[in-house]
Hints:
The structure holds two protein chains of two kinds. Chain A is α+β, with helices and mostly antiparallel strands. Chain A is built from five helices and four strands; from the N terminus they run ββαββαααα. Chain B contains five helices and no strands. The termini of chain B are far apart. In chain B, about 25% of the residues are buried.
Amino acid sequence: MSTTTMEQPTLGLKCDTPKAAPIVLTEKAAGEVKKIITDQVSAGETRALHLRMRVVGGGCSGFQAQTRPRPGSEPEARRDVRDAGRAGRDRQAQPAVPRRRDGRFPRRPEQARLQHHQPTSQGHLRLRQLVLDVSRLRLSAMTDPDHFARLGLPRRFALDLREVERQYLARQPRPAPRLPPRSVRPRNRPRASICRPA
Amino acid sequence: MNEANAVLRDPFKRAEYLLALEGGPTAAEQKEMPASVPGRSAGTADGNRELRETEPPDSPARQARRRRLTERRDALLAEVGDEFETLGGAADRATALRGIRQRLNATKYVQNLLRDLHSQ
């Protein structure tokens, strides 16, 4: 396939509409297009087919042209949806905001950019979680006994320190009975044996 | 359980805890001390510093000062106890709680003086 390139006479803003460059299809490309059209017609496509060309990144010279016949009466919205599905294959059909929130640390510092798309209900979910946590905290503060109740003492300033100590010791877990050290235990304890009758 | 024992055995911690349970202001919310604090006199902290610098730890002057500060702290805690006892029948509960907070602030002040006196 051969294309014609046009050089701009001067650098500056591209205000003027560039002249349409002539596009020449090689015999091989034209045969390929005809073959695709035949396939589409044999598949039952009755609408008029048009040839659509676009230039995408890649290829040996930095760009490559793609031709794809598509029905002329296809709605624009439907085309956008399909192009979005081909985002991984066709670079030009990427969504407007790329998906960069993938749960990893960014390789470069954060730059100014558009806000990441989030479902509208997500904010409500976060708020609900926060409110639930607060209510749980207050509930636990209301249900947990205070230090006076924990030691079974009246809730007042004047306390008998001996009573505090007694209640504290009464609520301590009882220690397990101590076994004698291993060196003190008898080593030659009688063992069970099976006696066979003679 | 250990924390409950530690809080209730110490009169100052017990008073702070009881004031929080009653809904009184914290020390950060109200930092005033009563005007007639027994231990709050001009030069108390400076006097402590002079004693630490000039007198040995077991000198009679330091012991006397320590005894006076201890008596002041105990007197303040006794007043706090009295105010807690009358809190149930207080006409203005918020004012009573603020009064307890002021006395506890003064107690803390005297306790800090005692701590500074103990330190070399």
